[in-house]
Amino acid sequence: MFCWISNAEKDGFGKIVHVEGSRAIIEYFDSPAIEVRHRISVPVSAIRRKRLGSNTRVFTFNEISNQWRIGRVRDDDGEGVEVRLAHKQDIYLPYEQVFVRWKRPIEDPVGFLGNFVTETPQYAEARSGFMSNYVFQRGAAFGISALLSSSIELESHQIEVVRRVLTDHTQRYLLADEVGLGKTIEAGIVIRQTVLDDMRGHRIIVLVPRELVSQWREELIVRFGLLDFLDESVFVLPQEDSEELRDVSRNLSLLVIDEAHHLTAENATESVRRVYSLVGDLAQRAERLLLLSATPILRNEGGFLRMLNLLDPVVYPIEDLDGFLAKVTNRQALAETVAALDPSNSLFMDSALDDLLDRLPNDPRLAELTRTLKEKLLDIPDETDQDFCAAVRQLRAHISETYRLNRRILRNRRTQIEGLTPERKGAELWQVEDSLMERIEAALEDWRVGASLAAGALSTDGASEMEEFYWDAVRSLFENLPGFSRACAQRLDGIDSGTLVSFDGEQSLLDSIIRTVGVEYWMTNRLERLYRGLGTLPDAAKAVIFCANEENADQIFRYLKDRRVNVVRQGDGDYQERAEAPTWQEFLTAPEVRAIVCDQRAEEGINLQGGIKVIVHFDLPLQPNRIEQRIGRVDRYGSGNPVPSYVLLDRASPLQMAWFRILDDGLGVFDRSISSLQYLVEAEIGSLVRSLIYEGAEGFDALRERLAGASGAVVRELRLIDQQDALDQLSPVPEQELDELFDADADWKEISDAMTYWIEKTLLFDKVKLPRPNGKLSVDDPFRFHYCPPDAGSGQPTLIPLSEFLDEFLGAIDFDAPGNRSSRPQSYPYVAHRPSAVKRRVRPLRYGTEFVESIRLFSELDVRGRSYAMWRQVFGQFQPMGIRTCLRFDFLVETYLDEAQAVLVQQQHRANESAHSSLARRGDTLFRPTVIQVWLNDEGDELPEVFVEQYLAPRYAKEGGDGYIDKNLDISYLAAFKRWSPDILTNWTERCERMRDKAKAIVKARPELLERQKDSLGRAVAEDEIRYAQLCTRIQSLDGREATAEAEQLALERSLNEALHRGISSPSIKVDVAGVVFLTSEPVSLLEGFVREQG
Fold first, then answer.
1. Cβ proximity of 1066 and 864 under 8 Å
2. 590 — phi, psi (to 5°)?
3. What does the alpha-carbon distance between residue 1077 and residue 541 come to, in Å, rounded to a whole number?
4. Sheet with 613-617: strands ordered across
C-alpha cells in the first residue's frame, strides 16, 4: 500500500515493501529509467497509509509487452487500484504493479523518452511555452519572484533596494528612503519573498506603531497577496511588549521594524526601553532583519546608534556614543566637499577635487576618477554635458559606496527621483469671521501679561507651572476649544483649593477667560466656513479634512452629512483587525465620496494618496511634525497631482496667524516635506515652551525670523542634512539596466497566452472572468481558475488530483470565494495587465504568483510535457516511404551554484533556504537563465534553422495544419512502429542518451551562449574589482571592530564571487524536454494495422 512518512511528506507517496517488527522498508519511485529504487527504513509509527486520489498519475510495467504504461487512478479500494490507461482502457492492478513518482523534480526526461514513456505533444508544446516564459520573467526580474508577482507599480529605485537586499546572503538592512518614497513597498517585497522562499517554514514578525497595524495588514493583503499567511506565519503586531509577541517570536525568518526610531529615541519612556531590549534579542535571533526609518543622523546620533546596534551589536555597541559622534562629525567635512561636486559648479570644482585628494590620499580609485574629471574640466564643460555629468556621477557613486556610514543603510532621496511624489502647492487661508477668538485671545493675553510680571517673584516650581499652563492653554486654543475652557477651570479650582500658586487678580482673569469662551458659537462659524470652502473646490477634487481630536471630527462629519455632502468618517473600525473594507478605502475607491473627516489617529495610520486630493486643516496643532504627518498621508509614493492645503483661521487671532506664519514662512511645511527637520523642530519648540509666556505672539514671530530666510536655521539644517545624506544615498539605477524587466512585464498578452495555454487549455482548469464593475470596459478582465473535479458532470476534469491541488497550491486557493465548494475550489482573482491589477486590487498573473509557482512545481514533478513522440505527415515534401527522425532537446541553462553554496556553508556554517535563495538570485542577476532548444537528425547533427522553422516549429495539429497533420505516438503506436520498422528504434534507449549528450555539447559550443557567458563574466569581474577597491579603501579608513567585520566580509565576497564566476563559466545545463518527431509524407495509417493486430 502507499503511504506518507511523517516529517518527510515533501517526498510524496512511498510504497510499503516490507515490514519487520517495529520498522518498515519504504520504496520511492523516480523514473522507469532508474532500475534501483530509492529505499529507506523508517519506524512503523512514522507511516501514514494513504489511498491514491482520483486522477493521480501512475505508471505500470507490462511484462508481456516489456513496456511501461501511464494511466490515472479511477479508484483505490485499499487492496488495489483501478487505473485508466490510454484509449479509455480500464484495468485493476495490485499495489505491487502500480508506481507513483515521488515529489522530486524530474532530473532528466530522456529516460522517459528512451523507455517510450511519452505523452501527447500538446503537453510538451503548452508546457514549453509556459516554462520558457517563466524562465524569461525570472531572468528579467533577477530571480526576485516577489517583484513581478506583487500588485504594485514597478519603480527603479525600489527595485534597486530590494535587489541589494535579496541578493545578499546576510539580509540585515536599514531602509532609509526619505518619507513618501515607498519604504513599505520595498519591505513588502522582501516580506513576500521570504514567504515564497520557504512556503511552509517561514515565520515573520512586522512590528509597527499601533496606529499603523491596520494599514500594514491591508498592504500585505492587497499589494502582496499574503492573506492566507496573516496571523498564521506572518504577524503584524504593535511595538509593545505582549504575550503574543513572545509566543510567536521563535524561529524567526524575518523581523521587520517600521518607524524603528520610535523604539530607539534617547528620551524614550521606560516601557519603550523595555520593548527595545526585547526587540534587540529578537533581532539577533532572526535570520533576516529590516529596519524602516527616514530619520536623519544629525541631532539624533544616539538614536541612530541604537538602530545600528540592532543591525550589528558587535560593530555598533551602544556604549560607544562618543566614538560614533566623532565619526559623524568627521564625515561632515567630507560631506561639505562632496556637496561641491555638482555639474552646475564646474567653474569652482577644481578646488573641491583637490580637497578630496588631500582628505583621502589612500584611495586609488578616487584618484583615478578625480583625474578623469579634472581632464574634462579643462574643456570648461556645460552643466548639461553628458560625459561630464556621467564623470561626476561616477565619482559621487564611488564616494557614497566607500564612505557611507554603513553599507547596509539604503537611502533614496526625493531629489534623485522625479515624478513619484507630488509637489506641495502651498496653503490658502479660509478665514473665519466673528468667531469670538479676538476676545478670547485678548482675555488670555491679559492673563499672560499678569503672569509674566509675577513669575519673577515666584519659586522655580511656581513659575514652571505657569509656563506649562500657558503653553497648554495655547495648544488647547488651537486644537480643542472645550479643552481650553476645561484647562482654565482646572487651574481656577487648583488655586481655590490652594494646590496651585497664583498671582494677584489671577482668579478674576481666569473667570473672564471662561466667560468669554463660546464653544458652540465658535464651532458653528467654523463649520459654516468649512462648508463654503468645500463648495469652492474643483469637482474632481477629494478633500481630506483633518482636525486634532475625535469630538470635533464627529461634529464635522455630522454637520457635512446634514448638508448632504457625500462624506465618510475615519473611525474606530479602521484600526481594528477586521475583514470588511475600512472607510478610508471607500474614500479612495468610490468616486461619489467627496471627503473624509480624520482625527489625530489618522495622522500616522492611513495612506490616502492618488488622484486629485486637497488637505483641509480644520485646526493647526502646536506641533509642526503633526502637520507634516497630515500632508504626508497624501503627499507620498503613488500620487501625481500637486497637493494644496486649506487652513481654517480665525481672522482676528494674532496667535493663530503668528503660528501659521511659522509653519508657512519659517518651516515651509506647506511647500515641502520637513520630515528630516523633526529634531530641529523639536529643539526649537522645546525652547518655546518656557519662553512663550514671556513673549506671547512676539515669541512666535521671533521663532519665525530665526527659522526663515536664506541664512535661517531651516536652510542651514537642510544643507547639513543634505550633505550627510548625500554620502549615504544610493546612486540612481541606469534605466537600461532595467529595460528587460520593464519590457518583459509590459508584454502581458504574451504572458497571458503562455500561462493560460498550459493552465487552462491543457491542464484543464476552467478560466472564469469576473463581472465588470458597472459594466465598464477594461483593458484586461480579472478572472479565477476553477478546479474541475472528475465527477463534475460537464466538461473535462482538471488533470491534477484534487488532493494534490488542495495540499500543494499554498496561498493560491481562495476558500472564501463566492460559490467556492470543497470539490470545486477556485483560485484568487488574477489579471495579466499590471495597471489593471493595481487598480482592481487583484494579483498579477506572473512569475512568483502562488498559483503560477504551484503550476511550475507540478510541471517539474510530472511527466506530462517532458517527453513525447509524434508522427508528422508533411504532404508531398519527402520521398515515398522515407522517414526522417528528428530529436528535440530543450535545455535549461543557468548558473551552477553548488560551489558557491559550499563556500557559504564552510565560511558561515549556514545552509538555510534564505542563503540558498539569495545565491540563486545572485546567479540569476549575473547570468540570466535561458532555455535553449536543439534539434538533431538521426546522425546527431544539428538541423538547420530554416528546416526547423519549416517542418518542426509549426504547432501540434492532430486535426491538420497548413500542409501537415500530426499524430501522437502513444505506447500502442510506438510498439507498432517497432514492428513496422525495427531499425529506426533499434537500441533506442542508448540512442536517446547519446543524442542528448551530443545536443548538450552543441549547446555548450553555441556562439550566443559563449558570448553571453563572456559578457556576464566581464561585467561581473569589472563590478567586483570596483567593489573590492571600495571595500579595501573602506577598511583602511576604519579601525577596530568595523575594520575587522569589513575585512571578513571582503574575504567572503571574494570566495563567493570566484565560485559564482566558475558557475557561469561552467553553467548548469539540464534537459527540460525530450521529444522525437518522425517526419514523413506517409500517413500514420501505415501503423494502424499493426496496432489492431496487437489488440
1. no
2. -90, 115
3. 64
4. 424-432, 643-650, 613-617, 542-546, 595-598, 567-569
Residue 1045 carries which side chain, given as an amino acid letter? A
| C-beta atoms surrounding 1009 within 10 Å | 18
Helix (H) or strand (E) holding 339: helix 321-339
Read off the pLDDT of residues 263-292 as tens digits, 9 standing for 90 and up. Answer: 998 888 899 999 999 999 999 999 999 999
List, for residues 396-443, the tens digit of each pLDDT value. 888 877 887 778 889 888 777 766 677 889 999 999 987 789 999 999
Rounded alpha-carbon distances, angstroms, from residue 690 to 422, 447, 686, 696: 37, 16, 8, 11
Q: How far apart (Å, rounded) are the C-alpha atoms in residues 901 and 912?
A: 10
Neighbouring C-beta atoms of residue 262, cutoff 10 Å: 20
* Interatomic CA distance for residues 872 and 884, integer angstroms: 10
pTM above 0.85, yes or no: yes
C-alpha–C-alpha distance, residues 142 and 333, integer Å: 38
Return d(Cα 172, Cα 137) in angstroms, integer.
27
CA–CA distance from 430 to each of 482, 650, 1073 (Å)?
A: 22, 9, 71
- Residue at 365: amino acid letter: R
For the chain, count helices (H), then strands (E): 40, 30
Provide the Cα torsion 1034, 1037, 1041, 1045; round to 10°. Answer: 10
Residue 1069 CA to residue 892 CA, distance in Å, equals 6
DSSP character at residue 219? H
Strand partners, 15: 2, 27
Q: Could you report the per-residue pLDDT of 721-755, keeping only the tens digit for each?
A: 888 887 777 777 777 789 999 999 999 999 999 99
Question: Is 78's pLDDT higher than 70?
Answer: yes
Contact of 778 with 31, CB cutoff 8 Å: no
Mean pLDDT, rounded, for 1029-1055: 85
- CA separation, residue 840 to residues 217, 560, 837, 848, 1076 (Å): 18, 30, 5, 19, 45
Name residues whose C-beta falls within 8 Å of residue 597's C-beta, 6 or more positions apart in sequence. 545, 547, 553, 556, 557, 560, 567, 568, 569, 570
Rg (CA), the chain: 35
**Positive or negative torsion for Cα 1044, 1049, 1054, 1058:** positive
User: What is the phi/psi pair of residue 843, to 5°?
Assistant: -85, 140
